[in-house]
Amino acid sequence: MQKKYDATIVGLYILDVLGRPVSKIPDGGNVEFIEELRLTVAGTAGGTVVDCAKLGLKTLAVGAVGDDEKADFVIATLDKFGVDTSGFERINNVPTSATILNVRPNGDRPALHLRGASDHFLPPSKEKIDIFDCKVFHLGGTGLLKKLDGQASIDLLKEAKERGCITTWDLIAATEDTLTIVEPLLPYIDYFMPSIEEASVMSGKKDPEEAAKFYIDKGVKNCVLTMGEKGSLYMNKDNKIITPAYDIKVVDTTGCGDAFDAGMITALAKDIDLEASLKFATATSGLVATGLGSDAGIISYEDTIQKMENFKIK
After folding, report:
1. CATH of the domain at 206
2. CA distances from 279 to 113, 220, 235, 245, 259 (A)
3. Spatial CA neighbour of 61 closest among 146, 139, 169
4. Which domain does 125 fall in, by range?
5. Exposed/middle/buried for 5, CB within 10 Å: 0-12, 13-18, 19+?
6. Burial state string for 236-251 with b = 16 or more CB within 10 A and e = fewer than 16
């Protein structure tokens, strides 16, 4: 049966304020001049849903904003890209989640984060909208979703599986304690897609293959660890694929993991074979690194395919 949405993206929605290049914070009340400043919808759900929409998917956003001026920007931006926001909630008396990123000349991005509405929402009722009427169901931001973390997330992923969805998952800002929230989710995740740094912090395994095996042994069907300039590692119980990164000039690494997720979700929605899916996700991630913000460089599915064919392996 045809699903209404290609992808439902649930979780962390953030307004990012980005400036570059920032070599240092000025002393006292002094001023330093930068070359570029952007506002973007970001987060492990927000950045992913925008990239999915730009890649041509019919998407449903499920998350929350506050009752401030930042909320208006987030909703207007999602609407501009054609994202269905009928699963969104505006919450009174809390701020919209937001981050200030001072992007260094080498692309690193120390962050100052305001936890806000993303900590205070639960998905809408089934009477309001069917969030499981999708081919791919993505949960992004576990650990920074205070009200949704725990049993509510288990129930979400479990029902997504029961409804025949492909489930994908990612997080940000993992700590050793995050595993206690993540572990009960693992049996319901088809594609587990954290960075190697996040996977290692939670598992205590520094070797990528050992880290991947740790999660597979706990129920994950397919583990994909993003490894920056080293590309990505895919593993399941029977297979291993290392996909090298493309040789690109890095401007800003904000949202590269979210873009990788969007590439994989797009490939899954289009029934692309596994190796090609991993290469496509690597290309979407690489494109985002070429500009400022979590949606930089991505124009369309067709444009991404064309650019990918001309990329050189690192």
Report:
1. 3.40.1190.20
2. 31, 21, 15, 9, 12
3. 139
4. 5-23+33-310
5. buried
6. beeeebebebbebeeb
**Taking 90 as the threshold, does the pLDDT of residue 18 lie above it?**
yes
Q: What is the DSSP string of 276-292?
A: HHHHHHHHHHHHHHTSS
What's the helix, strand, coil split of the chain in %, to 5? 35, 25, 40
Angle between helices 69-80 and 43-54 (to 10 degrees): 30
205 falls within a domain: yes
Q: Residue 1: is its pLDDT beyond 80?
A: no
Number of domains in the chain: 1
pLDDT tens digit string along 265-313?
A: 999 999 999 999 999 999 999 999 999 989 999 999 999 999 999 898 8
Indicate the average pLDDT of the chain: 95
Indicate if the pLDDT at residue 252 is higher than 90: no
Is residue 210 a part of any domain in this protein? yes
Mean pLDDT confidence for 138-144: 97
Q: Is the peptide bond before 21 cis (omega within 30 degrees of 0)?
A: yes
pLDDT value at 173 more than 90:
no
To the question of pTM greater than 0.90 for the whole model, the response is yes
d(CA 159, CA 153): 10
289 in any annotated domain:
yes
- Which residues on neighbouring strands pair with residue 235, listed in sequence order? 223, 240
Q: How would you class 56 by CB atoms within 10 Å of its CB: exposed for 0-12, middle for 13-18, buried for 19 or more?
A: middle
CA distance 139 to 153: 8
The pair of three-digit structure tokens given for residue 313, joined into one six-digit string: 């392996």
Q: Is residue 290 part of a domain?
A: yes
